[in-house]
From TrEMBL:
Chain ranges of the Methyltransferase putative zinc binding domain: 19-80
Any coiled-coil regions, as ranges: none
Organism of this sequence: Ramlibacter humi
Domain C-methyltransferase: 260-418
GO molecular function per UniProt: methyltransferase activity
One Pfam family hit: Methyltransf_23
Key words of the record: Methyltransferase, Transferase
Protein name stated in the entry: Class I SAM-dependent methyltransferase
Alphabetized InterPro entries for the sequence: Methyltransf_Zn-bd_dom_put, Methyltransf_Zn-bd_dom_put_sf, MeTrfase_14, SAM-dependent_MTases_sf
GO process annotations (BP): methylation
Length: 424
């Protein structure tokens, strides 16, 4: 395929960072969200007066392979060793996981003699459904506090980071997988080359890898700048992800477009020499759509930064107008994306009184950077805010259903992405 590589414009950044896939120097900005703290580093009250680390959220795009990427300002060990995100607190995500396991078991004939491995298995939210079907499982999860929950469910879990080295260890021990699931982890890996090499090693000759990750095309179309945070090192188009897999002998044979996380891809890959799984039409169709949309041309990426700035101004206009009218605003949720949005927009307790979350781990703590307090959901009924600002906007339908009672006092919902919208 012909890649169009125009000369660097005069305004391009001239830092010395290099692309984590192809090694090219990174010279072009995709989005610059200023300085922000690690998005899952919630603060107890006794730490509010201590110095808090802030790092750049400057995302660049490679002019050669078009990987959109953030430098490793914060190491994965700092982010994931003690982690605040537990997948099981979202009902819709559990339903997504259950449907996935049932479908994979049927499509690929998984049974008692198979092994399903999930990389970044979190609290066992997905593997539990394979186990219920009698399919042996293995979880790999670097966050010890989250992995303990999975082990408590009887799900074998290694507390390790996944890569080529761990895959080689498992193969030496006689472990290889019929199915490797990697949901929302591909973007979290700084060394994507080692990670992809590990997938290749761990996979049985007739095995299948499925990867789910936010689709860069949807991120840009939907103005989803808040999904940029230090946990996400890479932002993949289908074309770039397919090329990376191909470099390590893995062929993409199917792809599905999902609604989860604002628009994700589920990519299916197998060994190059496994011709038992023909390449579906979906692969060529999506590749053609991305090419037609300009994803092999640098200019396509360059307009996003100004689009993000316009959105920031509209979000601030909503909050300022609400305050001028004497309205109260509370948040719902304390997701990583919410912390990016609040820090980038400079929204603190002068504009957002507090937020609530179903996860008890976050109760009584404060959001990183903004120091907005986090309460249990019952706080909404106590204070009866005029607006509930939904930070995990990708779950807005689920949340509006859970909180339908706010209409009793005339409360309304607000969603910030793709644009500020108020709902009854």
């Amino acid at each position: 395929m012909e890649l169009h590589r125009p000369a660097a414009p005069a305004h391009a950044h001239t830092g010395h960072a290099t692309c984590r896939i192809c090694g090219s120097r990174l010279r072009h900005t995709f989005a610059d969200l200023g300085m922000s703290p690690p998005c899952e580093r919630f603060l107890p009250a006794d730490q509010l007066d201590q110095m808090e680390p802030f790092y750049p959220l400057h995302v660049q795009v490679c002019e050669r392979c078009f990987l959109v990427q953030l430098q490793e300002y914060v190491s994965p060990k700092d982010i994931f060793t003690e982690y605040a995100y537990f997948s099981s607190y979202s009902d819709s995500w559990l339903a997504h996981a259950r449907a996935y396991t049932e479908r994979m078991a049927g499509r690929f004939g998984l049974g008692p003699d198979s092994l399903a491995v999930e990389v970044a298995s979190n609290d066992g939210y997905l593997l539990q459904y394979f186990a219920q079907q009698g399919i042996p499982v293995l979880g790999i999860e670097p966050a010890a506090n989250v992995a303990r929950v999975a082990v408590g469910k009887g799900l074998p879990t290694l507390v390790r980071f996944f890569g080529k080295e761990l895959a080689a260890e498992l193969v030496r021990q006689g472990t290889r997988a019929d199915l490797i699931t990697a949901n929302n982890v591909f973007a979290h890996v700084p060394d994507v080359r080692s990670f992809t090499a590990g997938l290749k090693l761990l996979l049985k000759p007739r095995g299948v890898v499925t990867l789910e990750f936010p689709h860069l095309m949807r991120l840009m179309e939907g103005n989803q700048f808040d999904t940029i945070y230090h946990e996400h090192f890479s932002y993949f188009s289908f074309l770039t992800a397919s090329r990376l897999l191909a470099q390590f002998g893995l062929t993409v044979f199917d792809v599905e477009e999902l609604r989860s996380h604002g628009g994700s891809l589920r990519v299916y890959a197998r060994h190059d020499d496994d011709e038992s799984r023909p390449i579906e039409d979906s692969v060529g169709e999506l590749a053609q759509r991305e090419e037609a949309a300009g994803f092999t041309q640098l200019e396509t990426y360059s307009a996003f930064d100004e689009q993000v700035r316009r959105t920031k101004r509209r979000i601030l206009e909503f909050f300022l107008q609400a305050r001028r009218e004497g309205r109260t605003v509370a948040g719902y949720g304390a997701p990583g994306k919410g912390n990016t949005l609040l820090n980038y927009c400079g929204i603190r307790t002068d504009l957002l009184d507090y937020t609530v979350d179903r996860n008890p781990y976050k109760h009584g703590k404060f959001l990183p950077g903004t120091h907005i307090p986090v309460f249990p959901p019952g706080k909404l009924d106590e204070t009866r805010p005029d607006y509930v600002f939904i930070l995990p906007w990708n779950l807005k339908d689920e949340i509006r259903k859970q909180l339908s009672y706010i209409r009793e006092w005339g409360g309304r919902f607000v969603v910030p992405i793709p644009d500020v919208e108020v709902f009854e």
